[in-house]
Amino acid sequence: MSAADMPLVLVVDDEPAQRALLSYNLTAAGFRAVTAQDGEEALLIVAEQAPDVILLDWMLPRLSGLEACRQINATQGGRHAAIIMVSARSEEADRVRALETGADDYIVKPYSVAELVARVRANLRRVRPAAAGTVLEAGDIRLDAESHRATREGKPLHLGPTEFRLLAALMERQGKVWTREALLDRVWGRDIYVDTRTVDVHIGRLRKALSAHGHQDPIRTVRGAGYAMD
Is the distance from CB of 77 to CB of 49 less than 8 angstroms? Predict the structure, then answer.
């Protein structure tokens, strides 16, 4: 799995030792990890890097975790992220409040790192199933990210690495319209400059592979927006 394929987890905590501990363990578990020391820094990172999962401490300086959660869910980069609220508050009312604010999960301190990593994986299966090893299916198309195999009606699809990642993104969010910029971020990564026209070239190659045996093209072009798989 390339660096661009690895799921990105944002750790938001005001304690440096905790950030370092979680970052180390997440990296060891096969994730990319980035950290923020408060809610305001977290919002900047979400806008710039669009993480897949966010570990968000409730008690933060400058901007509380609860308010950060609310604002993250209102942003383009955070709308599709899974937010796991981390807190020493163990009352049911606190859990309900966090979930109603937009958190997807809630974990109470103290916790084991193994449990936290398991929660990250469980939430990742919802927001980015291919990266979590889930086999994706869309009609007669099947994609197995772990074995890096894709088939249509049981016949192998001959895809390059970029076309494989494009297909995974489209299958993960069937019906979602991906802009060219969003596909660039997901497939090529934010640190690599690629012209948006390159997306069109690789979509063309993907379409050719998907239609190799006379099948209908499942990719829809949305004029002025991008692409979607219906």
Answer: yes
Q: Compute the radius of gyration of the chain from its Cα atoms.
A: 19
Closest CA relative to residue 1, chosen from 133, 155, 172 = 133
Running DSSP on this structure, what letter comes out for residue 187? Answer: I
pLDDT higher than threshold 90 for residue 169: no
Q: How far is CA 147 from CA 84, 161, 202, 204, in A?
A: 29, 13, 21, 24
Q: Are residues 177 and 74 in the same domain?
A: no
Structure tokens at 88: 């020493």
> Could you tell me if 20 and 56 lie in one domain?
yes
Contact present, 169 and 178 (Cβ < 8 Å) = yes
pLDDT in tens, 195-211: 888 999 999 999 999 99
Task: Look up residue 205 and give its amino acid.
Answer: R
Domain that holds residue 38: 8-127
Number of helices (H) and strands (E) in the chain: give both, helices first.
8, 12
Per-residue exposure over 199-221, b if at least 16 CB sit within 10 Å of its own CB, e if not: beebbeebbebbeeeeeeebbee
The CATH number of the domain holding residue 182 is 1.10.10.10
Average predicted confidence (pLDDT) for the chain: 89
First-to-last CA distance in the chain? Answer: 26
